[in-house]
Amino acid sequence: MLTTDKTKERVSIYQPEQEGLIFPEIPEFNSFSEEREYRKQHLVAATRAFGMHGFDYGFAGHLTVRDPERPELYWTNPMCVHFSQVKMSNLVLADHEGRVVEGEYAINRAGFVLHAAVHEEFPDVVAMCHAHTLYGTAWCATGRPLDMISQDAAAFYNKHAVIGASAGAVAVERESGWTVAKEIGRNRAVLHQNHGLLTTSRHSIDDAAFWFIALERACQQQLMVEATGIKPQLLSDKTAQYSQDNVGNDFIGWLHFQTLYSHIAATQPDMFE
Ligand SMILES: [Zn+2]
């Protein structure tokens, strides 16, 4: 049986087959400047989503997305600006050496080292997120990967790693950045022991941000289960893989984030300033 073009375009079971319904679609761009505007807006929304989730810890935490025209440069949040106050006009464009190419604010040097190393080592990594979250950092202290305790956790099945190297050391030295960069770039998610969570995406900042939020939640759920002292029933490998294929891919990460984007864009219009 022939597949119609319309069917071919469906990359997920969540995309409606019925026509005329409101559903997020990945936009197409006519110019680099259009795409840049989109990436910056979604970076701002991702940063504010982190603020809404309480992921701030002083100046710690950084999100990056590559510039579409100059992929050796990436946009990031300004240092010492609360996640909830990041806006289009205070984003910073930086190069691999940590030099600010555009923008008025300084950038977090620790953030630069880690992100620059990953972006340089893996040219296809589009976006990356890192923060010192409460549950993620707590779970990272165990040095254990996540157990497959739920369908949500299955998004990280065989796609996350625990890194013990440079554990707990402030990642300001280039050496430290390179050591962890290789592991970070290979995985959707990394639990950096005694430090915090990191996510990367080859799809979008939306995807990296959503799976970061999901990762923090998975760490919280794992801690809650552990606290009961009851041994949890785990997903089988087959079920975990099935769940990941259907509800844990890059498109689904992007799609989940559109819910947050719409909410933030509607309720926090100063993000566009
Ligand atoms: Zn950190």
Q: What Rg, in angstroms, do the CA atoms define?
A: 19 Å
Question: How large a portion of the residues is in β-strands, by DSSP E?
Answer: 5-15%
Biggest sheet record = 8 strands, mixed
Ligands present: zinc ion
Q: SSE order, as H and E?
A: HHEEEEHEHEHEEHHH
Q: What is the name of the CATH architecture?
A: 3-Layer(aba) Sandwich
Shape: globular
| Uncertain spans | 1-5
What's the count of strands?
8
State mean pLDDT (0 to 100 scale): 90
Strand order, largest beta sheet: 4-3-2-1-5-8-7-6
Count of all domains: 1
Description:
- It is a single chain.
- With 273 residues, the chain is of the alpha+beta class.
- It has a single domain, classed as L-fuculose-1-phosphate Aldolase.
- It has eight helices and eight strands; from the N terminus they run ααββββαβαβαββααα.
- Strands 4-3-2-1-5-8-7-6 form an eight-stranded mixed sheet, with helices on both faces.
- Helix 5 links the parallel strand 6 and strand 7.
- The structure holds zinc ion.
- Zinc ion (ZN) is lined by residues 60, 110, 130, 132, 195-196.
- The site of zinc ion has 6 residues, from loops.
